[in-house]
Amino acid sequence: MNSLPTASPIHGSTTSLQNLLAKKQYDSSSAGSIIDAFMVRLQQLQCRDSHSGVTGFKREYKELCHSIDKAPGYDAALTPQTTARKAKNRYQDVVPFEKTRVKLQLVSRETRDDYINASYIDGGYIACCAPVPAAIGDFWHMVWQCHVHVVLMLTNFVEHERLKAVRYWNPRGYAVTYGNLQVQLLDKKTQIEGLGFIVRRFQLSHKIGLKTESRTLLHLQLTKWPDHGVLRDFRVIASMLDTVNCYRDDASRRLKVEAKVVVHCSAGIGRSGTFIAIDILLKQLHRVLIGRKCETEGTQEIVPLDVSKVVYRLRSQRPGMVQTPEQYQMIYHFLAAVISGNKPW
User: Fold this and answer.
1) CA distance 237 to 14
2) What pairs with residue 54 in β-bridges?
3) C-beta of residue 25 within 8 angstroms of C-beta of residue 261
4) Backbone phi, then psi, for 133, in 5-degree steps?
5) Are 202 and 169 in contact (CB under 8 A)?
6) Which residues are paired to 200 by β-bridges?
7) N or C: which end of the chain has fewer CB within 10 A?
8) Helices 307-317 + 270-289 axis angle, to 10
9) What phi, psi does 258 have (nearest 5°)?
10) Nearest by Cα to 133 from 103, 163, 168, 161
11) How would residue 189 be classed by pLDDT, with cut points 50, 70 and 90?
12) Neighbours of 257 (CB within 10 A)
């Protein structure tokens, strides 16, 4: 298998963040105060209520979930479901918002529908459920249509004797055709540095008339993060983040496109939302350290390292992102580990 590209410090890899933080080489006078404010907030949230015993993490998480899930018009904002659409959902209680859902340009021949259970997310991500058999062709067409160059699979096929995902490729390397798109597994590496994730490469070939265009896709599968749970080994997240961002950035430069990353677990909200939130916050941290402003949201500049605002934003783009208080707390702890030098890599 070809070697993976080396992570670039320009985009806030965990290695470059480690170096900046260790040397305290902040190019921004406000960086120290922003980091201190985050660590103070972390300490506050670790305290338990004297009466209920509930941590601040759980209380903050429940409050932000309630502010979105119980907002007027929430149900009306969800994508309307038909029988055909329901057949393409892994879970009937997890459907995208209409305003952020991915709309297929090559509609299904059977239903003439542009529906796939997938949502556009900040940071160049698409979050989706693990494709059911009826949606595998739609999944690969979405990958091609949206210039996806990395797929991140954060689930096993079966967990606790429950089916969480199906294999949406031929494991023997035979090419599978979906309309004018052909998908073929090129190779597979079972682990990187003993961290327990599988790396695959696929070739996608898209034919229009006599012309065929091909792309190579990187597929990473993490098999040790339990559904609804947290990942204890932060080294895995750090390594996957660096690999994902490096490969995406390299594809964007070479091909002069905004390469996207598809992330899915089983439902495409819990583990997927947690991973994306961590990536967004680490990039905010990097911008703080080098003295750059974070992106704006509308007319307001984003306040960096505000976990609640990042998760609120994700849940406004796809229902249920970051599924449990424990996953919410994991985001804080990962960021704190990076800042404090308790290396998660």
Assistant:
1) 10
2) none
3) no
4) -50, -40
5) yes
6) 188, 219
7) N
8) 130
9) -90, 85
10) 168
11) confident
12) 11
Pairing of strands 296-297, 260-264: unpaired
- Contact residues for 157 (Cβ-Cβ < 8 A; gap 6+): 163, 164, 165, 166, 167
Residue type, 42: L
Residue 5 above 70 pLDDT?
A: no
| φ/ψ of residue 118, rounded to 5 | -150, 150
CA distance 259 to 85: 27
Out of 128, 129, 146, 265, which one is annotated catalytic?
A: 265
pLDDT of 1: 44
SS3 29: coil
201 by Cβ neighbours in 10 Å (0-12 / 13-18 / 19+) ranks as middle
Specify whether 265 is catalytic.
yes
3-state secondary structure of 117: strand
Amino acid at 280: I
- The C-alpha atoms of residue 146 and residue 142 are separated, in whole angstroms, by 6
Dihedral of CA 66/70/72/74: which sign? positive
What does pTM read for this prediction? 0.91
pLDDT in tens, 143-165: 999 999 999 999 999 999 999 99
Residue 136: strand, helix, or coil? helix
